[in-house]
């Protein structure tokens, strides 16, 4: 009797785990030196609180060889997720097996995965704003609103150019509306929303401090944004945890890629 009950409980757990939808292989494109795979989740709402990311992905060719060089940065997205693998352009591939797991992230306040930090004017700068209940378990996580003085201390002599014809120049920090610093890791990732936008700003610049592993992102949100408008910028964080994640497996066999 106990074995039957255990089996039923496991069945219910499995059903619940994969009940949010199945993975769709949107397309598999073959370029001259690469294969690009696009995946999405069936019936997933395309709004601010439903994200997907590749948890695991294995591409095996018709000879049983596993492709290893994934060239796409794996980040949470609202629509489809992409992976691109290098291939031998001289080799002919008949088909591929595509197998893995999609990580479905649905942040919420009651599951401690959504945090409305509020407006810039109410936030202390140059400190880690991630809740201590999270950082005590994962000290690698870091998010901070940074002022220009702190940025210049981290990158005192940084100069850049946009193309080979230009001369190197210092960053005009006054031309950006916001600077924030962040660090996540493979075990736990998070998403930043600025004024409710996830792909925020333009003319953005991201620099990495190799000593700490912290990234510094400089953002231009609006032409001619005033100082008072900058103070009203709203920040939200969505930090993944096991209570907000669903794992959805997929396995596509004998897929013939389309030529680009």
**Number of DSSP strand runs:** 16
Strand/helix succession: HEEEEEEHEHEEEEEEHEEE
Strand order of the largest sheet: 4-2-1-16
Instruction: Please state the overall shape, judged from the principal axes of the Cα atoms.
Output: globular
The low-confidence parts are 1-20
Which bin fits the share of residues in helices?
A: 10-25%
- Structural class, from helix and strand content? mainly beta
Helical run tally: 4
Q: Which value, in Å, is the CA radius of gyration?
A: 22 Å
Quaternary structure type: single chain
The rounded distance between the terminal residues' Cα atoms is 57 Å
Q: What fraction of residues sit in β-strands?
A: 35-45%
Q: What is the residue-mean pLDDT, rounded to a whole number?
A: 88
Characterize the biggest β-sheet.
4 strands, mixed
Keywords: Signal
Signal peptide: 1-21
């Amino acid at each position: 009797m106990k074995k039957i009950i255990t089996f039923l409980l496991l069945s219910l757990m499995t059903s619940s785990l994969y009940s949010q939808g199945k993975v769709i292989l949107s397309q598999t494109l073959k370029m001259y030196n690469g294969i690009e795979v696009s995946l999405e989740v069936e019936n997933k709402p395309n709004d601010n609180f439903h994200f997907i990311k590749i948890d695991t992905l294995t591409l095996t060719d018709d000879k049983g060889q596993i492709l290893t060089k994934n060239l796409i940065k794996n980040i949470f997205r609202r629509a489809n997720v992409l992976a691109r693998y290098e291939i031998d352009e001289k080799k002919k591939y008949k088909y591929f097996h595509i197998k893995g797991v999609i990580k479905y992230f649905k942040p919420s306040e009651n599951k401690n995965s959504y945090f409305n930090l509020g407006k810039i004017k109410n936030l202390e700068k140059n400190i880690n704003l991630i809740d201590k209940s999270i950082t005590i378990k994962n000290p690698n996580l870091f998010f901070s609103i940074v002022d220009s003085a702190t940025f210049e201390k981290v990158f005192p002599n940084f100069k850049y150019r946009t193309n080979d014809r230009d001369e190197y120049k210092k960053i005009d920090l006054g031309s950006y509306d916001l600077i924030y610093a962040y660090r996540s890791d493979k075990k736990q990732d998070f998403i930043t929303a600025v004024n409710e936008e996830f792909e925020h700003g333009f003319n953005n610049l991201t620099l990495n401090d190799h000593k700490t592993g912290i990234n510094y992102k400089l953002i231009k949100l609006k032409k001619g944004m005033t100082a008072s408008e900058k103070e009203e910028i709203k920040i939200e964080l969505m930090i993944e945890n096991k209570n907000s994640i669903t794992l959805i497996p997929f396995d596509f066999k004998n897929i013939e890629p389309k030529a680009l």
